[in-house]
Design goal:
Order of helices and strands of chain A: HEEEEEEE
Protein name (chain A): Translesion error-prone DNA polymerase V autoproteolytic subunit
Largest sheet of chain B: 5 strands, mixed
Largest interface: A-B, 41 and 34 residues
Number of strands of chain B: 13
Pfam family, one (chain A): Peptidase_S24
Strand content of chain A: 25-35%
Shape of chain A: elongated
Number of domains of chain B: 3
Structural class of chain A: mainly beta
CATH superfamily of the largest domain in chain B: Reverse transcriptase/Diguanylate cyclase domain
CATH architecture of the largest domain in chain B: 2-Layer Sandwich
Shape of chain B: globular
InterPro entries (chain A): LexA-like (IPR039418), LexA/Signal_pep-like_sf (IPR036286), LexA_repressor (IPR050077), Peptidase_S24_LexA (IPR006197), Peptidase_S24_S26A/B/C (IPR015927)
Distance between the termini of chain B: 48 Å
Radius of gyration of chain A: 28 Å
Helix content of chain B: 25-40%
Distance between the termini of chain A: 59 Å
CATH class of one domain in chain A: Mainly Beta
Strand content of chain B: 15-25%
Helix content of chain A: under 10%
Strand order of the largest sheet of chain A: 1-2-7-3-4-5-6
CATH superfamily of one domain in chain A: Umud Fragment, subunit A
Strand order of the largest sheet of chain B: 5-6-1-7-8
Radius of gyration of chain B: 24 Å
GO molecular function (chain A): DNA binding; hydrolase activity
Oligomer: heterodimer
Keywords (chain A): Autocatalytic cleavage, DNA damage, DNA repair, Hydrolase, SOS response
Number of helices of chain A: 1
Number of strands of chain A: 7
Order of helices and strands of chain B: EHEEHHEHEEHEHEHHHHHEHEEHEHE
């Protein structure tokens, strides 16, 4: 094999560590908590049931303040859920995504949660296209920047 | 029994997923550097836009027909692809991810319990419900027939996107309809040769004598003939073998003539290649750098050269690999040329601990590995690629890929989430 000199490689430390002991030597009293340690909590477990069907979107506007969705909030959307009466859903209306409450009775409509906005009605002729069901709202309460 | 599940117009469908305003509008997706058309929505196909045509040739039609254009957004396509594959994994005993938008499913044992057509329809429905992507499903006793079935599912709307070729009589009927070029593994050159010998359709190929094909063509084509007749020769490859080399190369947005530009490009490709290397937990022993000018520019000198160097010990340290790449570039560089493309290849790959350590060089320090891990974590952490870089990558940036029509990283960047009106 030919070796060619590539230039000096500067290693952050030039010392070579030699292991003196193969095992740590326990000294002192073992921690009584050792047998009780569990994995720390992961927010994903709480907010996401179907990872491959979950998308995040950002809300803009004040029409859903009544259910606690404010402008700039991040919404967790699960596409795998079948939308039912009373669900908060992402719908496609006039070429835009919108977040509203789904009402299937007495008539099909999308309901805002702000008195300033009228419900969006769906007659027998127009179809309602849904993107997914909102399961969680992520609302930061700390002012940033 | 196999199913081939293939996403319909995958890149265009990804672009439409978060753009309800594009419903029904034709869409095309461009190649790297926005040069050619690499994907079309069903509407764009109907308008007669061909695959792989240069953009400038159809620009006029694109404006006239109000076709939406996008640069390739691989961050988006990769994420949606992973979602589709995850859904498929949950629906079959085993799956082989064949490409970014298709997968083979092993259905052995399922056929005695279900109607496979019904299973295909449920699969199609489920993938759409979960991901928003439409797929077509071809079901058959061999992979080659499953490919053909999938093609038929796409071509004939009456199939509702699912074709089950379990029945040998149906296999024969479909083979009679399919041109040679649609057979998996039969390319243009091979099909021309077959046609010269009077074999002009998929059915004619299926009727060939296997021994004759093996003697006059290849074992591979003989297996294809067997597969067309329903005898499985290819099995599911669940774990693709780890890649034996990692290549990162691209054409520049504009020609490069200055060394700092080239050094910056090589540094960026090197960092990207090293990151890919670490993603598959490998170490590389050989670094290759190549640069080339435009082979089609007749009035210019054509120059294309590469150089490699072997490390004493395999490494995954971006700093070490980049240092070597820059040294190699110095040996290749010729001034006064207009370079079109450059790249870096990492090869002779090892798993950690599976090589003979060098007697003369210190082993890679754990601190270096931790540093690289930290760099990767920051760059893959949902705030965008390239947040931490090596200074060499930033010497100049004008040469970078043109992606003027790039859609947002809807699913991989917190600042680019789809907006919903509240």
């Amino acid at each position: 094999m030919q070796l060619s000199f590539l230039g000096r490689y500067r290693c952050p430390t030039t010392s070579i560590a030699l292991p003196l002991f193969m095992n740590a030597v326990p000294a002192g009293f073992p921690s009584p908590a050792q047998d009780y340690i569990e994995r720390t909590l992961d927010l994903n477990d709480l907010c996401i049931q179907h990872p491959s069907a979950t998308y995040f979107v950002r809300a803009e506007g004040d029409s859903m303040q009544g259910v606690g969705i404010f402008s700039r909030d991040v919404l967790v959307v699960d596409r795998s859920l079948k939308a039912a009466h009373g669900d908060i859903v992402i719908a496609c209306v006039d070429g835009e995504f919108t977040v509203k409450e789904l009402r299937t009775r007495p008539t099909l409509q999308l309901l805002a949660h702000n008195p300033a906005y009228a419900p969006i009605q769906f007659g027998p002729d127009n179809t309602l296209e849904l993107f997914g069901v909102v399961t969680t709202v992520i609302h930061s309460v700390r002012q940033r920047g | 029994m196999f199913a081939l599940v293939d996403c319909n117009n995958f890149y265009a469908s990804c672009e439409r997923l978060f753009r309800p305003d594009l419903a029904g509008r034709p869409i095309v997706v461009l190649s790297n550097n926005d040069g050619c058309i690499v994907a079309r929505s069903a509407e764009a196909k109907r308008l007669g836009i061909k695959m792989a045509v240069p953009l400038y040739q159809v620009q006029e039609q694109i404006d006239r027909e109000n076709i939406a254009i996008f640069s390739s957004n691989y961050a988006l396509y990769g994420d949606i692809s992973a979602r589709v594959m995850t859904v498929l994994e949950q629906q079959a005993p085993a799956i082989e991810v064949y490409s970014i938008d298709e997968a083979f499913l092993d259905l052995s044992g399922l056929d005695s319990h279900f109607s496979l057509t019904e299973y295909g329809q449920q699969l199609k429905q489920l993938v759409y419900q979960h991901t928003g992507i439409h797929v077509s499903v071809g079901i058959a006793p061999t992979k080659t027939l499953a490919k053909l079935a999938n093609h038929a599912a796409k071509q004939y709307p009456a199939t509702q996107g699912v074709v089950d070729l379990t029945d040998p009589a149906r296999q024969r009927r479909l083979l009679a309809l399919m041109p040679l070029l649609e057979v998996w593994g039969v390319g243009r050159r091979l099909s021309r040769r077959l046609e010269q010998q009077g074999i002009r359709s998929a059915q004619a190929l299926a009727d060939c004598d296997v021994a004759w094909i093996r003697n006059h063509y290849s074992i591979t084509l003989a297996n294809t003939v067997r597969e067309l007749n329903g005898q499985p020769c290819m099995s599911l490859e669940e774990c693709p073998p780890p890649r034996q080399q990692i290549l990162c190369s691209r054409s520049f947005a504009r020609r490069i003539s200055a060394l700092p530009d080239m050094r910056s490009a090589i540094a960026q490709y090197g960092s990207r290649a090293a990151e890919k290397l670490r993603q598959q937990s490998a170490l590389a022993r050989v670094v290759t750098v190549f640069i080339r000018t435009n082979p089609h520019a007749t009035e210019e000198t054509f120059y294309s050269q590469s150089a490699s160097r072997m490390l004493a010990t395999p490494s995954a340290d971006s700093r070490q690999l980049n240092t070597i790449a820059q040294t190699l570039l110095q040996t290749l560089w010729k001034p006064n040329l207009r370079y079109m493309k450059a790249g870096i290849m990492l090869s002779d790959l090892y798993s950690p601990g599976h090589f003979q350590p060098s007697l003369f060089e210190p082993a890679e320090s754990p601190a270096a590995a931790r540093l690289m891990q930290a760099v990767d974590q920051i760059n893959q952490g949902g705030r965008g690629r390239g947040r931490v870089r090596f200074a060499g990558e930033m010497l100049s940036t004008g040469w970078q890929m043109q992606r003027n029509r790039l859609s947002p990283a809807y699913t991989t960047h917190w600042d680019q989430l789809p907006i919903v009106k509240a």
